[in-house]
Design a protein that fits this description.
By secondary structure, the chain is an alpha/beta fold. Helices cover 64% and strands 7% of the residues.
Length: 452
């Protein structure tokens, strides 16, 4: 646990303006956490005891959920994993919990997993996967007096990291709590008494907690610290019995590199390459045939990285790779099950295929881009979101303009005019002056091309 002490050096800067604002407004949130009765093959009050350990935390509103139902899906086997997600979502919807905690005995250990309502949605702002597992000795939940304070703090950090903030104030407060938790862990070595077999899981969650705090702060020290935490988990992979846990560690290292690529102001390309490499490593363990949701979410992230890489390098293969990854995600996040996520994927596909069609002068690819945008409008409707709908109309109009300019004929300019005027109508209704000027210029351009 020497690495924990190194974290201490990062947590004595002046109080940030965000934290001052929270203190001045006396802003406080209690996150609602449900502890589900543990799946245990021995007679035990472990789940209830564990719940009591969390009840004294000032930022958590904890309840115990002991309604009886079969918990055979907690094996984390791929064939029952969807049942776990569905059952958890039902409990979250009923109880309005921010996070629920599953506990399952494996020999002399209890495995903890953390689920949220947004975990596999486009709105998810957490680095925690439902597959991320934290093991604790079963003897500790049977005798809570044995629980090291640092382990309780670590579990609270896992809970706070899993939360998707509902607004900016909650996001700031969540970061404030994570900072306090990391500082507490850096000065408390009471978890050292745990056997080494728990090391990879503890280090994985330490990495998640620190990443959740520092992901958007461009600081090489932050990157090195988080990388060291997760790399230490990898170095103890001989202690990991289930390969999905190894996949989760690779996933988080990919997330670390991904964050560095997005927020660094210097040389993002090496970070992009690192993220792509680690995400692909993770997909070897979290494949689309076993853990499809995690695989699909990684594909979505990979698409974003390839797209950024294309913009940096103009390597057209990167743009093709981005489209491929979106198609992979599209197979999993379907219209029927994830309409918002599916609509986001359709919009991204429309954007990238439009670019690819224009670069390669392929009318077929451009027509597919238009189909994707029309798919997006099945969710983003004119009635419910007129501004977003109008922007899609404008994007389709631009594709028709390019098709006309590439030899498609007058009919494409006519269609562009129709789409542009649809967008103009909504922009005028919404008094979007800048967008009105832009679309008016587009209409004039299409008219000139049509009459040329």
């Amino acid at each position: 646990m020497k690495l924990l002490r190194k974290l201490k050096n990062f947590f004595f800067p002046p109080v940030s303006s965000d934290e001052k604002l929270l203190n001045e407004n006396n802003f406080h949130v209690r996150f609602t956490v449900g502890v589900i009765e543990f799946a245990d093959n021995v007679e035990s009050d472990g789940g209830r005891n564990f719940c009591k350990l969390l009840e004294n935390r000032p930022d958590l509103n904890v309840f115990y959920f002991d309604e009886p139902f079969p918990k055979n899906f907690l094996t984390l086997e791929s064939r029952t994993f969807f049942d776990m997600i569905d059952r958890g979502q039902t409990i979250i919807d009923r109880t309005k919990a921010d996070v629920i905690i599953w506990g399952c005995r494996e020999n002399d250990k209890i495995r903890l997993n953390f689920q949220t309502g947004k975990q596999y949605e486009i709105e998810d702002k957490s680095f925690v996967s439902l597959l991320d597992s934290l093991y604790i000795p079963a003897a500790m939940v049977e005798n809570p007096a044995l629980f090291p304070p640092a382990l309780i703090t670590l579990i609270c950090g896992a809970i706070i990291s899993a939360v998707t903030p509902a607004d900016s104030e909650t996001r700031i407060y969540r970061r404030y709590l994570l900072k306090k938790i990391i500082h507490s862990l850096s000065v408390d070595d009471s978890a050292k008494k745990l056997p080494s077999e728990y090391m990879p899981y503890i280090m994985n969650f330490l990495g998640i907690i620190y990443l959740s705090y520092a992901y958007d702060r461009e600081d090489g020290r932050n990157f090195r610290t988080i990388h060291n935490l997760l790399d230490t988990a990898l170095k103890h992979q001989d202690l990991i019995s289930n390969p999905i846990h190894l996949g989760c560690i690779y996933y988080h290292i990919g997330q670390l590199y991904n964050s560095a690529a997005l927020y660094t102001t210097r040389s993002p390309v090496p970070y992009m390459k690192g993220a792509i490499n680690y995400y692909r490593q993770a997909q070897k363990y979290l494949s689309k045939y076993t853990y499809a949701y995690d695989y699909g979410y990684i594909s979505y992230k990979l698409a974003g990285l390839f797209f950024i890489y294309w913009k940096q390098t103009e390597d057209i293969q990167a743009l093709r790779d981005a489209v491929f990854q979106l198609r992979e995600a599209e197979k999993i996040y379907t219209y029927a099950s994830f309409p918002s996520f599916w609509a986001e994927l359709q919009g991204l596909l429309g954007q990238m295929l439009a670019l690819l069609g224009n670069i390669t002068k392929s009318a077929e690819i451009s027509e597919i881009a238009i189909d994707c945008y029309h798919n997006q409008q099945k969710v983003v409707t004119e009635r419910r979101n007129p501004l977003a709908w109008a922007k899609i109309q404008e994007a389709i109009g631009e594709i028709h303009c390019h098709l006309g300019q590439n030899g498609g004929g007058r009919s494409h300019f006519e269609q562009a005019m129709e789409y542009f005027h649809d967008a103009l109508y909504e922009y005028e209704n919404l008094q979007q002056d800048e967008l009105i000027r832009k679309i008016t210029a587009g209409i004039a351009r299409a008219r000139r091309s049509m009459n040329y």
